[in-house]
Q: What sequence folds into this?
């Protein structure tokens, strides 16, 4: 993901206003490869700026998605996750106990809908999600 300064420049180039709240969200995302939820980003931001609403955080995250800086993931963990790694195609590992999400760099180009089974869909992309138990949960059980 781009640095907070680069995101600020990108927003300005798009004619978007730069606010302290947006800058706080940019800082909260910097170096965060944990596929955070909006709520976890909000917790980081409110530690710095207590009056920032969850709605504001969601708006900034969705603005970043619309600019191609984040991908929104629905991985069945109960909350949308935000993936800052949009430059390299990848898949995901998901812990079924704690919800931890990690990137998986593996080639699955042969995953395709069998001919005749499209059911009227035009398939553009495919993603693979592996579910299991992470090392942290395995050692605590």
A:
């Amino acid at each position: 993901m781009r640095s907070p300064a680069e995101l600020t420049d990108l927003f300005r180039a798009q004619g978007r206003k730069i606010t302290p709240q947006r800058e706080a969200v940019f800082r909260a995302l910097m170096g965060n490869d944990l596929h955070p939820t909006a709520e976890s980003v909000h917790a980081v931001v409110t530690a710095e700026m207590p009056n920032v609403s969850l709605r504001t955080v969601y708006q900034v995250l969705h603005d970043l998605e619309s600019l191609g800086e984040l991908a929104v993931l629905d991985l069945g963990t109960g909350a949308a996750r935000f993936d800052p790694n949009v430059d390299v195609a990848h898949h995901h590992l998901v812990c079924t106990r704690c919800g931890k999400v990690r990137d998986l760099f593996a080639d699955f180009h042969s995953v395709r809908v069998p001919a005749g089974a499209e059911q009227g869909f035009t398939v553009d992309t495919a993603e693979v999600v592996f579910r299991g138990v992470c090392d942290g949960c395995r050692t605590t059980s």
The helical segments are 4-13, 20-29, 38-48, 54-66, 135-140. The two ends are 34 Å apart (CA to CA). Residues 88-140 form a domain with the Dna Ligase; domain 1 fold (CATH 3.30.1490.190). Residues 54-66 form the longest helix (13 residues).
